[in-house]
Design goal:
It comes from Rhodotorula taiwanensis. This is MPN domain-containing protein. One of its GO terms (molecular function) is K63-linked deubiquitinase activity. By secondary structure, this protein is α+β, with helices and mostly antiparallel strands. It has a domain of 68 residues: Cytidine Deaminase, domain 2 (3-Layer(aba) Sandwich), CATH 3.40.140. Strands 1-2-3-4 form a four-stranded mixed sheet. It is globular and about 40 Å long.
């Protein structure tokens, strides 16, 4: 993985900004795990519109979801959570939402230009 300075330099040279993060669930379904919720809270605390993309390759080409924490109760609940360990339960509240579904603030499109810069 590239160091943060290298990532920042590449972003600056292309005029890019971090809008969220992407990761895989190789054997799990498409949902943000408790560890994912905590990771994403840091992104969303810096940018309200930040997204988390979860890819589940075993589910085929449509095996991905785009999520964000709900403003309330999601962000407050996760930021206040002090539970130990990567996987722990949270209250049964609407902590996150699919942002690429009806009414969300993201839209998937196959018609946009795409480039991948591998910093490994």
């Amino acid at each position: 993985m590239a160091n943060e300075d290298e990532v920042a330099a590449v972003q600056q040279s292309y005029g890019l900004v971090t809008l969220g993060w992407i990761h895989t669930h190789p054997v799990q379904s498409i949902f943000p795990s408790s560890a994912d919720l905590h990771t994403h809270a840091g992104y969303q605390a810096l940018l309200r519109e930040a997204i988390a993309v979860v890819c589940a390759p075993h589910e085929g080409p449509d095996g991905f979801g785009v999520f964000r924490l709900t403003d309330s109760p999601g962000m407050g609940t996760i930021l206040a959570c002090r539970a130990e360990g990567a996987s722990h339960p949270h209250p049964p509240l609407p902590l996150y939402t699919d942002v690429d579904q009806d009414g969300g603030h993201c839209e998937a499109s196959d018609d946009l230009p795409f480039a991948c810069i591998d910093l490994q």
